[in-house]
Amino acid sequence: MSVTHPFRCLFAKVPPPPRRPLRRTFHNTTRLHVRPSPKHPSIKASDLGLIREDGKARDARLTAEDLPLFSDRDKAALAKRYTPAQIAAIEAGEAAVDPQDLVEQGAMREDSMRLKYLDDLSKIHPVVDKRVRAPEENYDLNLRFKTEHELLEDLGSFITDGYTSHEKSAEEQEKMKSRLDWIKFMDNNRLTVGKEEAERNPYTYLAPAIPKLKILKPKTADDEDMDAATRRLMRQTGFDARQIRRFRVKILVTHRVVNQTRLGKIQSIYSLAVAGNGKGLLGIGEGKSAENHEANTQARNAAVRNMQPIPMYESRTIFGDVKGKVSATEVELMTRPPGFGVRCQSLIFEMCRCAGIQDLAARVSRSRNHMNTVKATLQALLSQRLPEEIARARGRKLVD
């Protein structure tokens, strides 16, 4: 053994520790050591008044202790904007309200039976609430309207009331009858003779109003000129003629095809159309005929008949990236953020326009056949996986 061997071991370099293998992340969340520190410091619960003096947590619900009276500082601030009489009225109103009522009745309900709107239930809403019928005792069989003579007597008694006193001066008598008194007289003066409840809150035997039914629209010149194919389409889909006319229909592919028979070559026109309502419905249809117009009509009607709902995220794009394949044509559709637009070839652009998709990117690989491109795009749009389906498959609950 060499004598220098211990010295070589002593002054040898220490080998570095083995490197950790790189781990691939399968989510978009930033790792902990990369996340930036918060800009603002954390706020303590004691600064928000959520902890009592004894160190225990304060109840989130309102208590009578949380409703103090006006302090001297509050009164000084009110004195800058209100008169002493107004401040006294404000203090009297605050003193008249029991704090316990605010604690019990002023808290917001959090149960499942709470109302969908803010209402203190002090008034009957004519749309939301059901009208309360008056009792049957309010009905008066001998109720009649007052005559002109009786109405003039009521008006005369209102005018002459207070003016017969000779002890009051003319100025005091003018102040007695103001505009407000006249409005009160017009609002409270009765127009009938009989039970007062029969006029103020009458009882009625009438049934509630019958809902209005749609009146059959008479036939017009457009209905008479409608062909049999359009009438059959209306019966099959349930859409009326106005809705069918509002659909966006586009002929995407049209070319001549030949069928070889024993009698020779028979030529015809092939058409492929796409239809949609711009709000999530999309369908494609094919037509074939000897005439170009007849083939286009068949394709349009078939596209309207085959419309299906397309899932859309935020009513503008699709859920994630999807792929579709028909024969040798492969289409890949990719979701994009708001404002990106529809950046793809013309056939997919027209389909997105009919469906109402506003942000999308697409890539067509391998074959660029127009007919297969349209069919592969529809197949990709219908193969989207919704978040609800993914959560159900994983045994989870979807939380917004």
Strand count, sense and barrel status of the largest sheet are: 4 strands, antiparallel
Distance between the termini: 73 Å
Classification by helices and strands: alpha+beta
Mean model confidence by pLDDT: 81
Unreliably modeled segments: none
Report the radius of gyration as a whole number of Å. 41 Å
Strand order in space, largest sheet:
3-4-5-6
Q: Strand share of the residues?
A: 15-25%
Which series of helices and strands comes N to C?
Answer: HHHHEHHHEHHHHEEEHEEEEHEHH
Count of strand segments: 10
Oligomeric state, counting identical vs distinct chains: single chain
Q: Which percent range fits the helix content? A: 25-40%
Given the C-alpha coordinates, what overall shape results?
flat
Given the structure, what is the number of helices?
15
Structure, explained:
- The strands form 3 sheets. The chain has a 4-stranded antiparallel beta sheet with strand order 3-4-5-6.
- The chain is built from 15 helices and 10 strands.
- With 400 residues, it is of the alpha+beta class.
- The chain is flat and about 120 Å long.
- The chain has helices at residues 5-10, 72-79, 84-96, 99-105, 148-160, 170-176, 179-188, 196-200, 221-224, 228-237, 241-246, 292-305, 346-355, 370-382, 387-394, and strands spanning 144-145, 192-193, 248-261, 264-276, 281-289, 308-309, 322-326, 329-335, 342-343, 360-366.
Short description, anyone?
With 400 residues, this protein is of the alpha+beta class.
